Amino acid sequence: MSQKPQIFDRVVEHSIRVRYSETDRMGVVYHTNYIVWFEIGRTEFCRAAGIPYRQMEEEGILIPVTGVDCTYRRPARYDDGVTIRTRMGEVGSRGLTFFYELVGEDGKLLAEGSTRHIFTDLTTKPIRIPENIRTRFAEFVGAEIS
Amino acid sequence: MSQKPQIFDRVVEHSIRVRYSETDRMGVVYHTNYIVWFEIGRTEFCRAAGIPYRQMEEEGILIPVTGVDCTYRRPARYDDGVTIRTRMGEVGSRGLTFFYELVGEDGKLLAEGSTRHIFTDLTTKPIRIPENIRTRFAEFVGAEIS
Amino acid sequence: MSQKPQIFDRVVEHSIRVRYSETDRMGVVYHTNYIVWFEIGRTEFCRAAGIPYRQMEEEGILIPVTGVDCTYRRPARYDDGVTIRTRMGEVGSRGLTFFYELVGEDGKLLAEGSTRHIFTDLTTKPIRIPENIRTRFAEFVGAEIS
Amino acid sequence: MSQKPQIFDRVVEHSIRVRYSETDRMGVVYHTNYIVWFEIGRTEFCRAAGIPYRQMEEEGILIPVTGVDCTYRRPARYDDGVTIRTRMGEVGSRGLTFFYELVGEDGKLLAEGSTRHIFTDLTTKPIRIPENIRTRFAEFVGAEIS
User: Fold this and answer.
1) What is the tens place of the pLDDT at every residue in C28-65?
2) How many CB pairs under 8 A join A and C?
3) Given this model, what pLDDT does residue C90 score?
4) Winning range, highest mean pLDDT, from A109-113, B91-95, D55-59
5) How many domains does chain A contain in total?
6) Which of A76, C62, D36, D105 is in Cβ range 3.0-4.6 Å of A29 for a Cys bridge?
7) Which pairing describes strands A109-118 and C109-118: parallel, antiparallel, or unpaired?
8) Domain contains C5
9) Quick check: is D125 in a domain?
10) Which residues of D are catalytic?
11) Given an 8 Å threshold on Cβ–Cβ distance, is A72 in contact with C64?
């Protein structure tokens, strides 16, 4: 969205296989499913960073999506392997952004995009990110903690 | 499942139109979506009976699905009109069953099936159905209230 | 995305009701389902314009999504009514853009976004839009046909 | 459905992790997603048997679902690991049945069910199963080939 977003180099990769249910009558994956895969990517990113998303929710912190964009390059098909490459943008006190690339078994880019998030409590009221979570993310991506 | 289930005559009909997202690469509706439509059918059945399902949940009563079966007769396709015909089986003190027929614009049967449910509280602990709900359902279908 | 996109005033409105299956454990609609609703919006837009999308596909013209963005304002919940307001951007010879607003029963904006599309043949090879389709869309939105 | 169906012992296991998108506002997995997982189970069963389902489709043989049933025992939740255990019933000349158990990380049964299928050509006209496919399935499960 914005020009020149900060994106950290740290990548978490996770592979999935296209389900029959994810295809549509055009014979390829229905377009919103790529964005479902983004969600799998950030689940695995948080797990790799040592702060599983489910655990965050259980501690009362939600990270709902406030915006998404996706650009489609090549279609994925039933039973294809797809690798989700997830990276993180700068973690602000109130929200964060994830960036995604979806790559086919031949290494070619299928789609790319990003999701924007805020931190909220269980009532979905916006909150500031707890300092320990911010520090953990920052350490994981090697950012200076301001 | 069981032989000769009690099914009341009272039918609630509701029509939907097939979404592109509901198709699969076979060019027809993906099979689990018929069962999603069953859910729409029982939502409308409860509304017609005067006890909207959302209201029941807000009052602390959940009716989770404990079993489902569906038999597929003819495929539905993108942009087809489909009518969901929902009826109810006998309401026990601990659960109930809904029966469904999905019918195309030509009046032909697309699929039929049933869902079995129990009543639970918000923690999903089984409960007995509150008497006022049972009475309302019974009145709606014209059953004798035992 | 782009600055100052051309958006025509002609709006096609279509209302849906939130399905239980569309919610997630946060208690609100799962974010990709808003984008599924966008698809319903453009299906109804094409129908209103006199060129049903299914008919276009049957005549060998596909309009796959090449990009999508969505910004979320307020959550929708199970059984809420939602109105999809769809408008069209300028129709180029090779593609077009749709713009969407999702509005709750209280008239408040739930989400807004756009989808970008190209025209392809049944093998998904890009094609120029057939002149009769371009003319029909232009007439529908009141655009000058260049 | 029928009493005492033939079920072969050969089991193919495949594990998945529950996606956020698969949950509903009850906080657990939406019930039709268990049946989507059945489909993943039979995809992996066919692959293990040496006849990948995608390859069958590319050779012009479809195996659409003609019926499904599922009984729910325990809910699965976001990020849970789930193992799909798939077995096959007797392969007739015109169709076959798969049986499924979904098991949680603690080894407890979450759900079980079956899907019934026929063989069709690409126009979805019923056909007899090609002999080489029938033989392969029979060899895989150790059945006598009648």
Assistant:
1) 999 999 999 999 999 999 999 999 999 999 999 999 99
2) 59
3) 81
4) A109-113
5) 1
6) A76
7) unpaired
8) no
9) yes
10) 24
11) yes
Cα–Cα distance measured from residue A36 to residue D82, given in angstroms and rounded to the nearest whole number:
19
Whether B78 is covered by a domain: the verdict is yes
Residue of B50, B63, B59, B55 lying closest to B10 (CA atoms)? B50
Q: What is the pLDDT of residues B1-54, one digit of tens each?
A: 445 678 999 999 999 999 999 999 999 999 999 999 999 999 999 999 999 999
Question: Containing domain of residue D80, as a range?
Answer: 12-140
The percentage of residues in chain B with a pLDDT greater than 90, rounded to a whole number, is: 86
Mean pLDDT, rounded, of chain D: 94
Chain A residues within an 8 Å CB radius of D19: 36, 39-40, 43
Residue in B40, B57, B78 nearest the CB of C19: B40
% of chain D beyond a pLDDT of 90 = 87
Complex ipTM value: 0.94
Segment A61-82, tens digit of pLDDT: 999 999 999 999 999 999 999 9
Residue C2 has pLDDT above 50, yes or no: no
pLDDT at A124: 87
Cα–Cα dist B88/B76, whole Å? 24
- Give the gap in angstroms from C-alpha D43 to the nearest C-alpha of chain A: 9
Closest CA to B99 of B22, B10, B18: B10
Across the range B88-108, mean pLDDT stands at: 94
Nearest to C54 among B43, B53, B78 (CB): B78
Nearest Cα neighbor of A137 from A5, A1, A10, A6 is A10
- The CATH number linked to A21 is 3.10.129.10
Nearest to A19 among D20, D36, D79 (CB): D36
Q: Which residues contact C41 (CB under 8 A, 6 or more apart)?
A: C12, C14, C84, C85, C86, C98, C100
Residue B81 makes CB contacts below 8 A (sequence gap 6+) with B15, B16, B17, B18, B104, B105
Instruction: Please check whether residue B2 lies inside any domain of the structure.
Output: no
Q: Which helix H or strand E contains C102, and what residues bound it?
A: strand C95-104
Torsion of CA B127, B132, B133, B136, to 10 degrees: 160
pLDDT reported for residue B26: 94
Nearest CA in chain A to C61: A26
- Rounded Cα distance between A41 and D11, Å, is 30
Size of interface A-D (CB pairs under 8 A): 30
Residues of A in contact with B20 (CB under 8 A): 24-25, 30
- In sequence order, what DSSP letters do the residues of B87-129 get, joined into one string? EEB---SSEEEEEEEEEETTS-EEEEEEEEEE-B-TT--B-PP
Distance of CA D99 to CAs D5, D30, D33, D37, Å?
Answer: 10, 20, 16, 12
